[in-house]
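User: Show me sequence and structure for the first protein, then do the same for the second.

Assistant: Starting with the first protein.
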Amino acid sequence: MNVAGFDLKYSPEDIAWLTKRFEGMLQRGFISMGENVAEFERQYAEFCGTKYAIGMMTGTCSVEMILKSIDVRGATVLLPSHTFVATATAAVTAGARLIFVDCQPDNFQMDPDDLERSIQPDSKVVILVHMAGIISPHLERIKQICKKHNLLLMEDAAHAHGATIDGKKAGSLGIAGSFSFFSTKVMTTGEGGMVTTSDDEVYKWCRALRDHGRFTNDPNYTEIIGRNARPSEIHALFGLRQMQSINEMLAERRQIAKWYDDKIGEGRIPFVKKIRIPSNIESAYYKYILYLDEKIDRQELRKCLKEGFGVSLSGELYARSVHQQPVFKTNPQFVASPADKKFPGTDYVVSRHFCLPLYLGLTEEKVSYVVESLEKAVKACAG
């Protein structure tokens, strides 16, 4: 049996729906930001439980536009050292310097203790990244820290479409949330992003910033420096199709994760450990995460699974921490964290975690085969 690490297929029903609407769009002769984008924004705001949603060209643009809307120029922004580099580069592009915060291996999320001791006098924003589709179980404490130090809380929810904590959706938990619709994400339009917010000022500024700095409908009236970060009608159609089935998509991802949970159990596979997700949190399961003991080499395990069993692992989140990216070694002026700061939690996570296949259409039979293959491969790698 062969099991891919990632698989994105469109059903005949998806293809028929999209083809019909692409045809209508082409007949109207307007493929830039129009009625499909507006409807996708309306539906996505309703889905997240926010007043507004603002479509963007990419998820990176979404992070950047939020930070520009609250003006982080000359300030410091606190973000996890365990995230994709785009979270950090978007903050730099918005004019901020970076303070990296360690993570907690138990839940894959930002360490609130390290967050509080990392705050500096010029700190303005905390970016809470919902890694792997999991919202931090310490959300309320992080909110209290933000309130105590007069910091704004925003979400990088690129992995977390439909994730919840205490029934509240990702994207509605801070002043604004940023989503990505890149091809591998829980919900995808190929490329694209979305800002969600209930703040009138953030909404107003993000709309202007994505459209060359224009606050009005007058195309010849520019008030601020913005840029073209507008989404297309084409991407919006993909989004509208996925909005029709997003709840079913999330239910399927959670069912696949439950199969893994049940079949792996506690201690079935030596040298492998699961992440614990509290019952008040519903993960979007962008990835299914496990940890390897240091006795097992991750690349050797990958090779063994692929060559010996036909099982490909999904990509890691991520195999290099942001604070170790070369761009920040060669440009230390972007970083406000102490040069000698240690990140033991992040170092453990990036070196020891791995991700099992999890995507729509994965059957219970294949999940069972992945788990059986993993058990055999781990034993083989352990000698």
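Switching to the second protein now.
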Amino acid sequence: MNKITTATKKQCIETLRRIAEAEPEKIITRNYFRNNSNLAESAWTKHFGTFQEFKNLANITPSRHARALERAVAKHASADLYRELNGEKRNWSAAYKKPSDARFQTVLVGSDIHDIECDPFWRKLFIETAKRVQPETVVLNGDIFDLPEFGKYGVDPREWDVVGRVQWVHKFLEDLRNAAPNAEIIFIEGNHEHRLLRHLAEATPAMKAILSDLHGFTVPKLLGLDKYEINYVAPADLAVFTVADAKAEVRRNFHILHGFLVAHHFPEGDKFGLPGWNGHHHSHQVQTKYSPIYGSYEWHQLGSGHKREASYCNGEKWSNGFLLAHVDIIAQRAQMEYIDTTHDHVVIGGKWYQRANNSAS
């Protein structure tokens, strides 16, 4: 076939549209057009430059603006799933309030437990302390789950044990509730839980496997909220589009106890000008601060419950521990008692504990 080398812009577009309309299900590629039209490439390239632009102007494909609009609509449509889940998780922030009118109260705080990665010695002492002290409030300060299957560490799928990890958390919550049956338990969403729930909204293949194995668990069932009477503090929006946005949202997850005591998963909480604590960094630090309202007070960054042997980072630099905050709710003062469980001997309330085979005796 002799190819036409000279054609007007209108003639080129008419030719392309005629071929496209003859094969409405066909994706018209440059090679397909070359083989099925009487136009030489030089006839249309001088008008349009690229074949993509040729198709755009012939309305064979959406314009760049239209494609951008389609992408934006698709992005926000996918976020609708997250927004539905937002409503579900936010219904649990005060579902199981257990108010106490006692002036002097105790808050037991544990952070960064990371399910099966938890140090058994830490776990034993935390549950034992809950049983001995009978705190009015227990705060689980974020990252109670680890679930690296949904994380950034590239876990080999053949080593996944998502069901085992969920069951570990439920057994921990069961033991904690049995140890302190009257305590209000507050679970603050950490970055690991936020990531877990995003996967739940998306129904990723891994999450579908979890829900199948756990027989259709919903958010409260997955997190054990109903079964163990737990308040879940999670104002962070799941409908975010970038990693930076996700990090910023998780930093909104905090709780203020008794009107003056801040429980925050991230260190940003220390900027509130109130006593309290954060987790996330797996290392104990304490700062003495001053407020003209509260005077001198302490801010604690907690050690973790995560064992210090970690293949994916320098876990030996971490520390293990948890916190007892003894609170005068009328004077709005808190005496912080940090329990360091990093080493082989720990004293809690005058009682000695010794690490033995990664447990306590």
